[in-house]
Amino acid sequence: MRNAAGSAVIPLALVAHQGGWDEILLVLGPMLVVVALLWLARRRVTRGHDGD
């Protein structure tokens, strides 16, 4: 398997285990979605109470 530049061969061990960054994305991705949804919900609630 060659990389995008085509000048070096990527070891299969590196392809099989991406050095941990893919596992980090699998954890951080859903966490960021939850944080964004909580932020949005809190913003809507506080805007709703400002009109009272």
Task: Write structural notes for this entry.
The chain is mainly alpha-helical and 52 residues long. It has a domain at 20-50. The chain is 67% helix and 0% strand. It contains 2 helices and no strands. The protein has helices spanning 12-16, 21-50. The longest helix has 30 residues, at 21-50. The N and C termini lie far apart (63 Å). The mean pLDDT is 78.
Compact summary:
The protein has 52 residues and is mostly helical. The protein is built from 2 helices and no strands.
The total count of helices amounts to 2
Q: Radius of gyration, rounded? A: 21 Å
Task: Name the structural class.
Answer: mainly alpha
Low-confidence stretches: none
Shape: rod-shaped
Identify the notable features of this structure and list them briefly.
52 residues; mainly alpha; 0% strand
Spell out the blueprint of helices and strands:
Blueprint: H1 12-16, H2 21-50
